[in-house]
Amino acid sequence: MLKRFSIYAALVLGLVMSFAPRPAVAQLGNSGSIEGVVKDPSGGVVAGATVEISYAVSGFHRETTTGSDGSFKFTNVPFNSYHLAVTAGGFDSFTQDVDVRTAVPTTVQISLKIGTAVQTVNVEAKDLVENESTFHTDIDRGLFDRLPLESSSSSVSSLVTLAAPGAVADSNGLVHAIGDHAESSFSVDGQPMTDQTSKVFSNQIPVDSIQSLEVISGAPPAEFGDKTSLVIKVTTRSGLGQTKPVGSVRASYGSFGSDNAGFDVAFGGPKWGNFIAANGLKTGRFLDPPEFQVMHSKGNEQNVFDRVDLQFSGADSAHLNGSYTRSWFQNPNSFDALASGQDQRAQIKTYNVAPTWTHLFSTSTLLNVGFFARHDQFNYYPSANPLADVSETATQRRKLTNLGLRSDLSYVKGIHNVKMGATFEHTLLTENFSLGLTDPTINSPCLAANAAGDLVGSPDTTLTDPTQCAGAGLQPNDGSNPNAAAAPFIPLLGCIDLTRPTPSTNDACATPQSALFGFHGRGDIREVALYLQDTITKGDWSFNVGVRGDLYRGLTKESQIEPRAGMSYNIKASNTVLRTSYARVLETPFNENLVVASVTANPLLDAIFGGSSGPIRAGQRNEFHAGLQQAFGRYLVLDGDYLWKYTHNAYDFSDLLNTPIFFPIGWHNSKISGFNARVSVPNVHGFTVLTVMGHASARYFQPQVGGLGISDGPVFRIDHDQNFQQTTHVQYQPWKRGPWVAFNWRYDSGLVAGAVPFATDTTTPVDLTGLSADQQMQAGLFCGNVFPTLSAPLVTCDPSLYGSTRLKIPAPGTENDDHNPPRVEPRHLFDTSVGDDNLLHGDRYKWSLRFTVINLTNKTALYNFLSTFSGTHFVTPRAYTAELGFHF
Questions:
Q1: Cβ-contact 736, 712 below 8 angstroms
Q2: Do residues 629 and 679 make contact, with C-beta atoms less than 8 angstroms apart?
Q3: Running DSSP on this structure, what letter comes out for residue 877?
Q4: DSSP E strands, 161-257
Q5: CA angle, 128 as apex, 127 and 130 as ends, to 5°?
Q6: Alpha-carbon gap, residue 406 to 192, rounded angstroms
């Protein structure tokens, strides 16, 4: 089958070579170009005319002047609909709507009429809607450059969650995509990136390198596969045609000892260009900690991005993206970890190289051929003293290398916009980790009563076997006592219990002394995809039809044919677009620690997790979308989408004994439904408003069907489920070159907190013995006027006096994993920034200054609590940042 797909890919490339070449300007990836000639009524060229293109909803705006031959050209233009306006002295203004939906150059011929130039061209309502069948959000640098971003170490995640509906913010730069766990992918100038990009997995591309984003939250077109709940198409910045160098140098300092310095510069000529961005960050709050008070959370990051464009001729061009990022950070401590002296750290190195060649065969046909190589190396280091690590100590050395070839052919003719392509990816995985227990009560052979009278594991490290318990006045922890609050003793885990010697009766241990458990594994994953799609525009109708074929050869073997279809209708009289779409998707497993997740015959791992559900298989998804876009005059546009997704083999992450060794698991199926919406107010008298909102009902159905562990039970709401979230961003700049102010209002109704331990009776909301004093404080628990402290946890409480300031806990006897699960308490967060982009009113050289405040009211709130995947994390406390910049 793999050989057959390779033959098909070769046929696609061979077919396009039969076209006769004609010179023109070639583009690539997620962008196109607009070019043309401006003429007068007699056919003579008009030099010095001003040509502008804009899309008010995204904030995109560019302008240029025609050359001596009347020509103009805009390159690196993201796919979208644009309003083109031309003004020249002695002529009437000219306007036209231009669609850029392909890398094939868009050519416009303009003839001006004699008259008086109109310098102001108004945007009309019809310029605010797009006749597209797929719900998406366009975000240009002109809009997001002033957004107060929460996380400087994962600013792309912050940007997406603030500006795109359906993207729910979780801790450490993690984005929950419309009820899915991290089912997001990037397409950076056409290069697919489908692996995890949150701060505990990899390094993100720097936000300084981004020109614009298109976030697809509707049914994905056929060219996109793997992880498609959110497809984030990134168009990077370019120096092509930049004959006069432009750029900036910036430095900032803020709360938690955070300082950041960076620069970007774009330079080039008519046939070449180079854009470089680099920055370095140091902060005292790199990851989101498990306490509102920041402890042991220092980190630093350095990255560099370089894009080179070469235009060899009108028909041939080359493009190269290169980047390198290194991050180092401490694992934040809780009060429990601080008391033990825990000092865990991590380092991640990421590099990416992606060259692309583009050939334009004719004014209607264009070919892209590209190669990409991306590498992540993640190292996790325990404390120097292993026993200082709370509960367990672990190391990890993980590598992920993604190599690939991609090719796509675009053809535009009449009502058809056809794109066909092939992608081959080869992902190499290396996983190494070690593990040892450091808490003598976790796997104690004996039971002892605690202060509340509950039977828990005895901390006596001299005891190694349940037969010794009676002599010590204790009860054996052999699973026979129904009142035991501790898990039964597992002799095999005694082999890695570093707090006590290995029992002499345990012949399964490799050494007579307890030692770290070590794991080493490799994975080799190959994927081939072929796709064909056509966007058909006929009058007020637009159809997007396509089919994709995926062949997955990893630790399991999967293949699938995936039809994609969408339809939209533009009711021009009311400026309304109605749309509907469908997609069949093969969801490939997460690659991070996929090898260990697929182990099926390891006695120690089976002892920890109770067995294995088998290897992680690919998921099969059917999704349906219906929505509308409505413009109200030229001041407001509303875009909404209702979705329903059914997935067989639905994914989540788990962890290895609360360590940062995360691995994928699979559930039998999931049903996700909800809505997403966006409300945009384009620039009106200096005001710009963007509101994004969403609701996701994420119901998962057991049993567990893949990964370490065995579980079966009722339907449950996964922790990606959130009833409602919204972000409203407002910018105001009273005059074009004056100071500005920006404001964010973020609301989250709260993710599911399914790990809250409930009591077995119906009168007590929470099993207090299942929470340490520190965890009770993190949850904001209280009993009347009594709050827990590190030295005095809550032991018992009258249910009528019981409550929490940070969790919504169901009343006793009403908790239901599906219909009434515990949740994180709703939160309102406010951010603001104020600045001036030209302090000294310079022309060529400018100084800028901005001041940003995150969490203006210093709200104490949680992202999550005891998440199976990542534990407990608090949102950022109030943080200040001042930035000074020099622009040329």
A1: no
A2: no
A3: -
A4: 167-169, 175-177, 180-181, 184-188, 191-193, 210-216, 230-236, 246-254
A5: 90
A6: 9
CB-CB contact of 38 with 66 (8 Å) = yes
Residue 194 CA to residue 204 CA, distance in Å, equals 12
Q: Which run of H or E residues covers position 8?
A: helix 2-16
Please, are residues 348 and 203 in contact by the beta-carbon 8 Å criterion?
yes
Handedness of CA 673, 200, 704, 872 (dihedral sign): negative
Cα within 13 Å of Cα(828), Cβ side: 3
Instruction: Give the tens place of pLDDT for each residue, 343-399.
Output: 999 999 999 999 999 999 998 999 999 999 999 999 999 999 999 999 999 999 999
- How far apart CA 671 and CA 696 sit, in angstroms, is 10
Pull the structure tokens for residue 213.
């984003």
Q: Which of helix, strand or coil describes residue 128?
A: helix
Residues for the chain: how many in total? 888
Tens-place pLDDT, residues 800-835: 888 899 999 888 778 889 999 999 999 999 999 999
SS3 of residue 241 by DSSP: coil
Bridge partner list, 187: 192, 233
Q: Which two tokens stand for residue 754?
A: 């399914």
- Among residues 101, 54, 82, which one has the least CA distance to residue 411? 101
Give all strands of the β-sheet with 210-216 in edge-to-edge order.
Answer: 136-140, 210-216, 230-236, 184-188, 191-193
547 burial level (CB within 10 Å; 0-12, 13-18, 19+): middle
753 secondary structure, DSSP code: -
Residues paired with 426 in a beta bridge: 403, 526
Global confidence as pTM:
0.90
Residues 6+ positions from 96 with CB-CB distance below 8 Å: 84, 108, 110
Chain position carrying tokens 């490290």: 461
Tokens representing 461 are: 């490290």
Which position has the token pair 């509950």?
454
Q: Which two tokens stand for residue 733?
A: 């700049």
Q: Is 843 exposed, middle or buried (0-12, 13-18, 19+ CB in 10 A)?
A: exposed
pLDDT in tens, 141-182: 888 888 898 877 788 888 999 999 989 888 888 888 998 988
Mean pLDDT lowest among 9-13, 50-54, 72-76: 9-13
Helix (H) or strand (E) holding 595: helix 594-597
DSSP for 786-801, please give it. Answer: B---SSS------GGG
The residue to which tokens 């070639």 are assigned: 26
Categorise residue 731: left if φ over 0, alpha if ψ from -120 to 50, beta otherwise: beta
Cβ distance 424 to 377 under 8 Å? no
DSSP category for residue 600:
-
DSSP state of 118: -
Quote the tokens at residue 208. Answer: 């300084």
Query: Residue 34 is encoded by which pair of tokens?
Result: 């607009």
Q: Reply yes or no on whether the pLDDT at 19 is more than 50.
A: no
Which residues, in sequence order, are CB contacts of 139 under 8 Å at separation 6+? 58, 59, 159, 163, 164, 212, 213, 214, 215
Which of 279, 172, 161 lies closest to 230, judged by CA?
A: 161
How does residue 122 score in pLDDT terms, banded at 50, 70 and 90? low
Cα separation, 778 vs 689, in Å, equals 35
Collapsed DSSP state (helix, strand, coil) of residue 267: strand
* Gap between the Cα atoms of 60 and 201, Å rounded: 32
352: its two tokens: 């990416």
The CA–CA distances, whole Å, from 646 to 194, 506, 643 equal 20, 47, 10
Q: H/E/C letters for each residue in 19-56?
A: CCCCCCCCCCCCEEEEEEEEECCCCCECCCCEEEEEEC
Supply 466's token pair.
């349940």
Q: In angstroms, rounded to a whole number, what is the distance separating the alpha carbons of residues 441 and 455?
A: 11
173 DSSP assignment: G
Q: Which three-class secondary structure state does DSSP give residue 597? A: helix
